[in-house]
Write a structure and sequence with these properties.
With 112 residues, the chain is mostly beta strands. It is built from 1 helix and 10 strands.
């Protein structure tokens, strides 16, 4: 009896997935599908699990004043114009308003 035999998948697991049983792939984070061929769009908004009322609430992976950008196997958050990446007091990523930039944008608009 061979305890060290490797699982064999007829089709190779994609995007760093591992064949863990005959024709069964274990996908890396960010990928799904039988052979890990499908990118998960992390930017799709999902319903909040612990909603406190009957309203349909959604959660986003990105902080306020930013947009989520899906990438193959991952995502990133880009701050909106006039905001810059920063770290909040509790250590999470935020997009903080750049007061100097906002002031000069308003100043330019008032002189047009």
């Amino acid at each position: 009896m061979d305890f060290f035999s490797l699982a064999v998948c007829e089709r190779a697991c994609e995007n760093g997935g591992l064949c863990i049983a005959p024709n069964v792939c274990s996908c890396r984070t960010g990928w799904t599908g039988a052979y890990c061929e499908t990118d998960i769009n992390e930017c799709l908004r999902v319903p909040a699990v612990n909603s406190t009322d009957d309203r349909d609430e959604e959660i986003s992976l990105c902080p306020e004043n930013s947009v989520c950008v899906n990438k193959p196997g991952w995502y990133k958050c880009d701050c909106d114009e006039g905001f810059r990446p920063a770290i909040s007091d509790n250590g999470t990523g935020i997009c903080r308003g750049d007061l100097v930039s906002s002031f000069f944008s308003l100043f330019r608009l008032s002189w047009k």
